[in-house]
Design a protein that fits this description.
The chain has a three-stranded antiparallel beta sheet, covered by helices on one side. The protein starts with a helix and ends with a strand. It is globular. With about 60 residues, the protein is α+β, with helices and mostly antiparallel strands. About 35% of the residues lie in helices and about 30% in strands. It has one domain: TusA-like domain (Translation Initiation Factor IF3).
Length: about 60
């Protein structure tokens, strides 16, 4: 569900905004990469710990 929530947040945000997303889903990183590529957004940072993954996404400026 993190990608669904991220999509909702991106729709409410402005181009160039940064969104921080935290997830525990093991498939989050490849899902995030595919989503960002498809939508034209940039993953500014990605960190993974034992229990969670945190990413900063910069929304495309269209």
């Amino acid at each position: 569900m993190p990608i669904v929530e991220l999509t909702k947040a991106a729709r409410a945000a402005e181009p160039g905004d940064r969104i921080e997303v935290t997830a525990t889903d093991l498939a989050f990183k490849p899902d995030l990469e595919a989503w960002a590529r498809r939508m034209g957004h940039t993953i500014e940072s990605f960190e993974q710990t034992e229990n969670e993954q945190v990413a900063i996404v910069v929304l495309a400026k269209n």
